[in-house]
Amino acid sequence: MYVIGLSSGTSVDGIDAALTDITGRRSRLKIRLINYRTVPYPPGVRERVLALQSDSTNCLAELCRLNAYLGELFAEAAVKLAKAAGVPLRRVGLIGSHGQTVAHQPTPVREGRFRVAGTLQIGEPSIIAERTGVATVADFRPRDLAAGGQGAPLTPLIHHRCFAHARRDRLVVNLGGITNVTWMPAGSLADMKRIVAFDTGPGNMLIDGLMERFTNGRESMDRSGRTAASGSVNERLLRSLLRHPFLAQRPPKTTGRETFGRALVDRTASDARRLRIAPRDVMATVTAFTVRSIADAHTRFLRSRTLDSPVDVIVGGGGVYNAALIAGLRRAFGSVGVESMAAYGVDPKAIEAMAFALLAYLTARGEPNNVPSATGADRAVVLGKIIPK
Fold first, then answer.
1. How far is 377 from 295, CA to CA, in rounded Å?
2. In whole angstroms, how far apart are CA 157 and each of 30, 64, 99, 323?
3. Alpha-carbon distance 232 to 279, whole Å?
4. What's the CA gap between 139 and 386, in Å, rounded?
5. pLDDT digits over 88-132, tens only?
6. What is the Cα–Cα distance from 380 to 118, expressed in whole angstroms?
7. Dihedral sign for Cα atoms in the order 66, 69, 72, 74
8. 181 to each of 7, 188, 253, 287, how far by Cα in Å?
9. CA-to-CA distance for 139 and 98, rounded, in angstroms?
10. What is the distance between the alpha carbons of residues 121 and 22, in angstroms, rounded to a whole number?
11. What's this model's pTM, rounded to 2 decimal places?
12. Pairing relation of β-strands 196-202 and 178-184?
């Protein structure tokens, strides 16, 4: 079956669209990437999405409008992808859309007689189905939350299909706005219950936010990590960042812009001014913070799980193109091999969109597609809601 996967991550930099060919059942799935593209958001959309997530904004009308508008944009991305691949939409069996997260609150709180957790993704799937004529699966996270999980991470299934190995421990690192890792010990190819996955902390989010701040909006990222590479790490600021309580929290755990977004950017910029740290040194420091948070998570929560087999660190997401981040990871992991997913024949930017194609395929077949050992759910469940064509 041809399946299109659509996703936009916490960096809010556009829509990732992947056309895949999927065959088999859950235990013997095969997924092949046919075409991939990133469709940038129109000017102003990123700023509106980020404003929607700030504590100072509480506009239901804007939420309603953006839900519909992003639905149109996601549908358009699917149409453009199919056209670029030369595959008529009538041959596409499904679209799996993650949408755009605007709120993620996985820690239950007391409401009356209940303990409730919530998550909200926008990009109306009914519009996607109507514009494309393709059955669309969306809203994957809530069912896992309802089953007692965190609603994330949702990528371990695709990581398992692409990278699990019979004789090697493997750590997959997704450097998106937030970093999440998937630990697959040797032998987990046949036993997914041994997989551990969780968010470690920021990926590009703090780096991007401070770069935008220091350049007055002219740059939205530290391209190739050049600014960080030109600076020096300030150990005092780094120690302060490493005291963040999320880092010590045991898995399962997930996070987002609520924890590592604008408030932390503001605090870090304020600390840098007080300590008279130059912008390039701040960029070097927050890049080191991302690296240390990943390496420390491996040491705290995963190293004891090793079977003393060889370990591979496999990196994907937009951060794979940040040379300063990758160099930092290679230093942090020492003799352990750190390579891009591309070295394993997988497009490191397409992987998340591929994940939602795979999840949609299993949803349509009625097969469970969460990984309880990663999300903390009480049981395996079928994620997502189906909008018929």
1. 26
2. 12, 32, 18, 27
3. 10
4. 9
5. 999 999 999 999 999 899 999 999 899 999 999 999 999 999 999
6. 19
7. negative
8. 18, 15, 11, 17
9. 6
10. 25
11. 0.90
12. antiparallel
